[in-house]
Amino acid sequence: MRLQRAYQITRTFLSYGLDEIIPARWLPWSLRVGRYALFWMPNKHKDKPAGARLRLALESLGPVWVKFGQMLSTRRDLLPPDIANELAVLQDRVKAFPGEHAQQLIEKALELVSIDEAFDDFAVQPLASASIAQVHTARLKHGDDAGKDVVIKVIRPDIRTSIDADLRLMETLAGVLARHLPDGRRLKPKEVVKEYRKTLLDELDLLREAGNAIQLKRNFENSPLLYIPTVYSDYSRHNVMVMERIDGIPVSDVDTLMTLGVNMKKLAERGVEVFFTQVFRDSFFHADMHPGNIFVSRENPEDPQYLGIDFGIVGTLNREDKRYLAENFLAFFNRDYRKVAELHVDSGWVPSHINVEDFESAIRTVCEPIFNKPLADISFGHVLVNLFNTARRFEMEVQPQLVLLQKTLLYVEGLGRTLYPQLDLWQTAKPFLERWMQEQLGWRAVVRAVKENAPYWAEKLPEMPTLLYDYLQQQRPHANAQQQLLTQLRETQLRQTRALWWAVLTSGLLISTTLLWISQQSIWMVVGSAVLTVASGLFAWRRSH
Asked: Which positions are annotated as binding ATP (predicted)?
């Protein structure tokens, strides 16, 4: 089966002329010869540009490759702008599997004899179908939430087998690219596929997605910014998840939003705030914020609230990465390009031998033209392309752990551009970051640390007298032992000093005796000097023992 799949992928790649995208000089002679040998697989789409051919090929190969293309579209350091832009419009075009089969999977997962045991009005026709799963509507039948409208998400049957096979082939291809691409080591294709593997396999576990949704809901509890639907954990399994059904307007439906009188400026600003809140306050962010997963509540259009779904992909940042990014954003917003350059070097992302002044000048050249412009007049995609080209010149290594963040930032840009093109992204984000940095470094950080550690200190406080007494008791014998060691050390140093003095005296007498002997002085003088030398040597030996 693996050989058959490999043949199918090869035929698809060649029939769309994807071998022509990679410059011939980058390919080893064996691959060039192999391409000529497969003459019965010609490029059948020569009339289409390279980006369109790549997109169509990935679509024809199925969901794994479609999602890989979507992720690859955010890696503009790997691809030319025209190809990256084409991949950015990829959508899941997957035919739904039969609803009766989905019903059987739900019944098996929840150990139901019939779907009617737990749900009313189960819709056999799916509400939506994506590459990994599809969704059906129903109503809860029991419990405090009886009668509540829900959606049931079901993983596609037997998808894991095809995913594993395709991932293994991707890893093989990434290994070939890493060895033969001139920039392969810096661009880390193997690490990219590894990151994609983790992301994709995480999406296959709906219990993990349920946990992500619960965490996000807790982070934004009673928040006017974002509402996360309730997950019904009792009805959720690894391949089935039941969640509250929401009634919102797709964020991409701008006409409906305008008709309802939604405050578009406030909506766009809140989108930016949601992003920075997730990243810098919570270090836990929804990393698949494309328009299909974001809705707007119909309630209170003057004070709009986002509704989020599909939490299979989330990102996290450690404290060091978060602090580094915040400082970079602030330095960038303040146009302190020297600080940006120094932060890159200090973090180790740029080698220390790089000239900071040259790096600073290159960053200024890219970034300065976009300031004081509304979002409608700039493109993060274009800026990122230029920044990545700059990074390549200065040997900056790609950081795979930030791929999801970069992808999310591009989604936020697209969201803001769609909702309110006049949005001043810098003025919206800068106050938030400044406040966050003050909370991390100023007196607020001290107060927060005290609050966070107060329960621990309160628990240990009654034990402090006993702990202090035990410590002092343990230190008394240590102090005596240290005093004895110091005394012995002083005695040893004194003995060594005296031994050294006698050794120097013996050496001088030995030299004198030798000179008296050579100059043929009186025998009694020579003998006397020799006796003194021997006596001095004996004293030196005794002092050293």
From this structure: 127-135, 153
What residues are designated binding site?
127-135, 153
Classify burial at 354, counting beta carbons within 10 Å of its beta carbon; exposed 0-12, middle 13-18, buried 19 or more.
Answer: middle
**pLDDT tens column, 366-416:** 777 776 666 556 655 556 556 656 766 777 665 655 667 766 777 777 777
Domain boundaries along the sequence of the chain? 2-93+161-198, 250-441, 464-543
Distances (CA, A) of 198 to 15, 50, 224, 288, 400: 30, 28, 32, 14, 12
- For helices 356-367 and 337-346, the axis angle rounded to 10 degrees is 130
Token pair in block for residue 111: 């150990």
**19 catalytic, yes or no?**
no
Q: Of 19, 166, 288, 310, which residue is the catalytic one?
A: 288
Is the Cβ–Cβ distance between 194 and 402 less than 8 Å? no
Which residue intervals of 148-246 are DSSP H helices? 159-180, 184-187, 189-203, 206-219
pLDDT at 5 over 60: yes
Displacement of CA 81 from its chain's centroid (Å) = 23
Judge whether residue 26 has pLDDT over 60: no
Interval 437-490: pLDDT, tens? 777 665 666 666 667 666 766 776 777 777 777 766 776 677 677 777 887 888
Report pLDDT digits (tens) over 178-192: 776 655 565 667 777
pLDDT tens for 227-281 read 999 999 999 999 999 999 998 998 888 899 999 999 999 998 898 889 888 888 8
Helix (H, G, I), strand (E, B) or coil at 120: strand
- Rounded distance, CA 319 to CA 337, Å? 23
Dihedrals phi, psi of 353, to nearest 5 degrees: -80, -5
Alpha carbon distance 434, 280 (integer Å):
11
pTM of this prediction?
0.67
Comparing CA positions, the residue from 143, 420, 428, 208 lying closest to residue 304 is: 420
What residue numbers does the annotated binding site for ATP cover?
127-135, 153
The burial of 349, by beta-carbon neighbours within 10 Å (0-12 exposed, 13-18 middle, 19 or more buried), is given as middle
- Quick one: how many helices (H) and strands (E) in the chain? 21, 11
